[in-house]
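Record 1 of the preview.
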Amino acid sequence: MDLILDFLQTFAVQFQKPTLAFLLGGMLVAALGSKLDVPDAIYRFIVFMLLMRIGINGGMEIRQADLGAILLPAVIAVVVGCAIVLLGRYTLALLPRIKTEDGIATAGLFGAVSASTLAAAMVLMEEDGIVYEAWVPALYPFMDIPALVLAIVLANLHLQRKGGKTDERVRVWPIIADSLRGPALSALLLGLALGLVTRPDRVFEEFYDPLFRGLLSVLMLIMGMEAYARLAELRRVAHWFAVYAVAAPLVHGLLAFALGYVAHVTVGFSPGGVILLAVMAASSSDISGPPTLRAAIPTANPSSYIGASTSIGTPIAIAVGIPLYMALGDIVFGP
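->
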């Protein structure tokens, strides 16, 4: 009983943190009908700045890290991203009244990674003094790209069989190249490269790092307003998408947490790294994923996969998933 009470107390404390408060505040403002609007250009700039900060910091740490310690977590990130897509392909995509390509696209978006959720988790963990290897956010593309590529390949194979074109090949490399050119991954990889091959310590400490928390609070406000606005889209598609969007962040995060624990036991992957890996798995792409899937699976309904992700998946991952995995980390690894 004490274990359950400790878990609930740890879980509840997270809702007092400003990161989650701004997310909920954005949803409340939108629900009250406010005309508050943040221009898309500012939103994209904020995301760019956050990912550059994450990338530069990760690059500086990778430069000094033991590459052997990174290998297993990177492999686990790839496995988790692909497993999430396959799980969605053989659950959501097979349910009644669900178009197969809609189900696969949704699974692809949930297999990919949300930059905003990742940034929010980093701040909440730092506030709680939870230490993790600074290179852990650099696992982002190891989970993100395989998930998007696999979803696009599976959707195209399905559409080819449906159209009787079984002899056509799905070209994988253009999909990978497209993902790498996406704004989110481009910013993250640029930051990683700068952190690896240059000495950006001073500009990082004086510019990127001090702005991180303030910019994240604005991003959370935008995400909250966007989440509420997308609810109308989600109402127009089958209710199974809403069920999936609630359950998926929790199931996917627990899967990654379990595999991360294996890495903890075998190569000393930190408890904080395990939690952050779980958060990445629980998140769903909010920047690079939607345009990639729109272009590569044009027959899929964006209201299904973007609505499920933005209106339910992201708030669940941030407001429920992050506190859940942090509380679970306390139980498994100790305070």
